[in-house]
Every structure is written in C-alpha cells, then in structure tokens.
Design goal:
Oligomer: homotrimer
Number of strands of chain A: 9
Shape of chain A: globular
Largest sheet of chain A: 9 strands, mixed
Helix content of chain A: 40-55%
Structural class of chain A: alpha/beta
CATH class of chain A: Alpha Beta
Number of domains of chain A: 1
CATH architecture of chain A: 3-Layer(aba) Sandwich
Radius of gyration of chain A: 17 Å
Strand content of chain A: 5-15%
Largest interface: A-B, 33 and 38 residues
Number of helices of chain A: 11
Order of helices and strands of chain A: HEHEHEHEHEHHEEEHHHHE
Chain lengths: 270, 270, 270
C-alpha cells in the first residue's frame, strides 16, 4: 500500500516549488532529488507566482522569514490554490515572533493546505493561536500525547488538511483516521532541518499522489523514519551528526517500494 | 594541455567574488577551495563593487534572485569589466520569470562575459529571448543536439564569451571551435547545484588563465565530469546522492594535472 | 579544567540565537547540535529581539550582510545586553567594505561582547579602524605574531571581551592572560566557514559557562583544533575537503570531556 506512493512518485517525478529557509535549503533540494522529484527554490515576491505555475506542487516553510518572503509565501499559496496544486505548510517556529504569528494566521485564513507538518508546539500554536515556543529543531518540552493528537485532529478538521505532528511518536491524521508511527531515531534531533526535509519529501509524495494525501503523508513519515533507522545502523564509531545527515538522504535515495512496504509499522486509531 | 590550466590555478590561487544562490553557496565555496582558489560570497548592492575590486574574478549566478540582488549582480559585473576581471555568468532559470528575463537581458546588454554556462534551455533563452523552462536542476526535455550547438555558437558570436552548455553531452565553444565532452555520470543530476559548482570552478580556472578562456572552460567541464566519474566509482551500496555530492568535491580536491591530462576526452569540431 | 566546559555545555544545552551568513548557516547549526546545544537562525529585523529573548546566548556573524540584516544584528545585540545574555561577535570581513566597517563600528560602540573571534586582519581592523582585507576564508598574509597578540590584547582591554584570533597559531586573551594554541591542521583552511563554526561553538560554550568566558573560549578553540586533527587522521586517500568538513563536525559530536582534557595543549603568557 505505502510502496505504491513511492512508485508513483518516482514515476511522476513531481517538480516542487520549495520555498524554504536558507539554513536547510540545500538539504531540502537534495532530499527531493533523492526521492525522485526535483525542486525550484525561488522565494522572491516578484517571481513566485510564475514559479509556482510552472511547478506541480508547493512547499511553504516559514523558517528564516522576512516580511517580503512571508508575503511571497502567501502569494504563492494563493496561486497554487488557484491552479489546484497541492500546498504543504511547515510552520517553522510559528509561535516564536509576532512576525511569524501574523503570517501564520494569514496563511491559515487565505490558503487551503493539502498537508500541514509541524512539531507539537507549532501545531498547538496554529490551533490555539498562542503558546510559547522554545527552539526550532526540537521541542524541549513535549505536551502529553493525548493533547497532541487532539490538536492534530482539530487542526485537520478546521483546515481540511492532513496534519502531521513529528516528535518521539509521529502523528498523521485527516481529522478522522489517526496514525501513530514510532520509526526514526533520537539522533535525528541532532541533524538540523530533519523536519524541513520531511516537509519537502511530503510535498513530493502528496503532489505525485493527489488522490491519497493521507497515505502520501503517512508514507513520507515512514520513509523519513525508516531512513533515519537505516542511516543510524550505518554509523561507524567515528561518525557523528554530519555523516548521519548525509546517510539519511542517501537512504532515501536507495529506499525501494518493497523495503517501505516491508518496514513501515504504524498503529491506526479511528 | 588541460593539466596546465589546473597547475596555473593552484599556483595563482584566484580569489573569486562568487555571487550565487543561497541553496548551493556552501558547495560553491567548498569547490572553489577544493580546486585551489577561494571565495567571497557577498551579494548586497551596497558592497559588491568594493568586494569585486578586491577579488580577481567574478561569478554571477542568477539563482534565488531578488530585485536588489539582481541589481547587485549588474553593478558587480560592470565594476569587474572596468577592472578587467573575468566575469562568468550562470543564468539559472533565466526564462522562468519576468524578473529573471529582464535581469538576464540587462546583464547581456551591459556586462561583457568571459564565459556563460547554462543548460540548453537557459542558453536558448539568452539567444532567443524566449522559451519556457521547467526545473532548474536539469532539463526535462533536451533539445536536439544540433540546435543546442547552434545556439551555443550564436550566443558566443553575439557576446564574445566562451559559451558552455551542460547536458548529456557538454558543449564548449568560442563561436568558432566547438568541443563536445561526454564525461560525467547521469547521477550528477541528483545532486543539487552541480551546475552552479561547475560555474564557480570555471570562474577560478578562467581567472587563473586569462589568456586561455576557451581551454580554461574546457578544463573545468572535463574536471567536473571526470570527478563525477571518479566519485561515482567510489560509491558503496549504501551511498546515495548526499555522499555523492561530497565525493565529487573530494575528487576535485585530489585531482592532479596528470590525471586530467590522461583522463580528459573530447571531440573537436571546427 | 577544560573538560568541565564541555560537561556544563552538554548539561545545560544552551539555545543559541545564531545570526550568521547563508553560506555556512547549515554547518553552524549542525556544529551547535554536535556540541550539545541548539540554534535558532532568524535574522530579520522585525523578529530578532523576540528570538533573542527566547534564547540563552547570541552569536553575531557579519558574513553576507545586507543593511537590514546589519541593523538586525545591532538590535539583537542590544536586546541580549539588556537581558544579560552573552554575545559573541564574528566580524567576518569587517574591513572589506564601507557597509561592514560602519556596522562593525556601530556594533563596537553599542553592544558589549563576551567574546570576539576573528582572523588577524579582522581583529586589526577592529582595533585600528583600518586595514585592507583580502579573502574571508583565510588570511593571505599573516602579520607577525607579536603584533597579532598586541592587537588581541588591546581589543580585549578596550571592549572587555575575550578576544580570539585564529590563524596558524590561535590566540585567546582577556587582555591580561594570553593563551597560544597550536592545534588544528592547515587543511582546515580548505573548509569554508570553519571560523564561523568555531564562533558558533564558542557561543554555546560561553553561554553554558557564564562565569568562565576565557576558559570557555579556550575550550572552544581547543575542541575545534583537536577535532580538526582527529578528522584529518580519519581521511582516506579519496577524501578531500568535503568529507573533511563532515568529519570535523562528527568529531565535535563524539569528543568527550576526558579526550579534551587529555588532548588540549596550550601555552600561557601573562
């Protein structure tokens, strides 16, 4: 079932307009190439509508924002909606500043998302419009899992988007069905932008599988988690987080539909 | 003959003002260091003229543009011309938006280039002022090779620049002589910014060999292609595009003049 | 003694607001994660005061500046001072343009720094307000070591900051005590942003050890140098500067307090 998502993605080779932060842009581009898609990373207001129009899907990542770039995210999102392209939101640190909170709110009000992926704090911020946020790479304090799941479902019901919350346990929900995924490795928190990379990967999968956004998002979470495990198994005694970062992308490059099918484990809650 | 280009480059250690996109800036800086040059990456309008003046050569890469940055490319290009520094243009996605088309046109009109390197679509856009462009990392649809060569020659004759078109076959021409190079590996398309890296490398080689821009460009294409092959030969079963990216730069670091001399193969057409 | 600096850092896991250039931002984030800290990389004027307030320490790196970003560095620096957070300055290429010279001067006048790390030319520029500067990655011409030490001490006395000058010999001084460190490997000059990475690492160490900025800075210099040696020892015949870059961060990830204690060698001059 999930293997088919990868197969479709490698077949269709979606071109993703990936508007992301400058810290992880290179990794996002390389993970998109690893999975069989490709990327244009343009983020200036004057050209994003045209760039979106020549792509198949759109990823909006709110990291390293400027007012002009946030306006461009909004413009690209609206253009993608008009064209029927799937839009994925990664609300990086959305509670961290007034600038991001305001942009997050505008995006929620004016753009329809196929999927929204964040950590527990970011998703809570989008649901509640509040919450302090410490750090971008990982949550310092995890909320109880029940409230995380509740937030995810509520955000999904409110927006119509598949909502993905990553943490020790990953959650994927369409507001009705909810998947819990326990893949991955704690050391992934030591690789900057592993969340951004997952959002980019998800952008490709959802775009290549437009009729199955829930399964596409689930597949992306399982791929990233499995690849985190495979890459961890490859670490030698001298390897650290820099080699780990490369090995994760390498594993995405090499993962076959059969390996995903065989390896992916998740609980379903309905 | 080509080995001498590397030797001169390692001897002169050119300092390149490398104005590039934020996706591949790190890789461009590292490949410049790998080949024996070095880089300053500054791209703000208020300082680029001064930065250009303290460097030996200039690379203008149009990726992730903003109006301000494009103005800075133009300013730096004119300053480099005034100082007699070689200028290399990488017209990334020049047909993708009105913003880039306009900037591409201004650059063509107001700056003299020593070399222009792009894919078939980008070069066609510069020659014809039109053409749609899909993707940045690779051409989805390759034009017939004869028309690619024709475009390259015409652009070279029009501008006086050495023109380099990269694709399955790479082309290097000064409008009269034309080289066809078959080095490289298809997997290089899975590494983001391999074209940007080649342009940066070419910036160093052309700058260090000011009397031989055609041979310097040919050497850069051969080095990148050979290193793509060497790096591919090094890939283990778990390696993917992330490790490949590192191995390519590693190979540039280690390539000797003798290895280039021995390994480089190309056809000449005149 | 120095091992304790790492221990404290891994215990306190400082969150660093790291305002850096887009060339080395990814490496800075990953080295901060490698050492046990973490980073937010935000650099827009509209949000930096809020971001600084939610972090524990601040690193200001002047690379790839824009006027707006330099204003943001200044604002964040003043906010950090108000909150009592340590501020580290990396005056990348501060003598290279009028834009940077002016920003450097404003930062020196309006922000109190816990530590300032640069190469000999950058430190000389801050002391003297002049000096030409060629290249960013390394000094082409090293000044005599005695004058470098004199400049470091004077800058420290003038600012109250610990001053660190990196070069063939690294210098750490609080204006009275002066350490000379001979660790590292010449090949580190072939990795872009090794200086930026050291400044980021130092930001974590100084923040996690607020009562011992001199020892924290010394520890950071020794860690980076030792890890440069460890990583160099790991290089195979096909490895070059790209793999070296990864191995250095890997080594930081794996370095133990005992290894630092055992390995760190330095001279003290008082």
């Amino acid at each position: 079932m999930l293997g088919e998502i990868i197969t479709q993605n490698r077949l269709r080779r979606p071109l993703i307009h990936c508007m992301t932060n400058h810290v992880t842009a290179n990794d996002c581009a390389n993970i998109l190439l690893a999975c069989g898609g490709s990327a244009i990373m343009a983020d200036d207001y004057d050209e994003v509508a045209e760039i979106t129009a020549m792509c198949d899907g759109l990823v909006l990542n709110m990291g390293t924002p400027t007012p002009r770039k946030l306006d461009a995210l909004l413009l690209a999102g609206k253009e993608a909606n008009k064209l029927g392209h799937p839009v994925i939101l990664d609300p990086v640190g959305v509670g961290s500043s007034e600038l991001r909170r305001r942009a997050g709110q505008q995006l929620m009000e004016q753009v329809r998302f196929a999927a929204i992926r964040g950590n527990a704090t970011e998703i809570a911020t989008l649901v509640q419009g509040t919450a302090a946020h410490r750090g971008v790479d990982a949550d310092i304090e995890e909320a109880p899992i029940a409230s995380v799941e509740e937030n995810a479902k509520r955000l999904s019901q409110k927006t119509g988007a598949v909502v993905i919350v990553t943490g020790d346990t990953d959650i994927v929900t369409d507001g009705r069905l909810l998947y819990r995924i326990h893949h991955g490795h704690p050391m992934m928190k030591s690789v900057t932008g592993s969340g951004c990379q997952l959002s980019a990967l998800m952008g490709a999968f959802v775009t290549a599988n437009p009729d199955a956004p829930l399964r596409a998002a689930l597949a992306a979470v399982c791929v990233m988690g499995l690849c985190g495990e495979i890459a961890h198994g490859r670490l030698g005694p001298l390897d650290g987080n820099a080699s780990y970062r490369n090995y994760i992308i390498d594993a995405v490059f090499n993962l076959t539909p059969a390996e995903l099918e065989r390896g992916a484990e998740y609980e379903i809650d309905q």
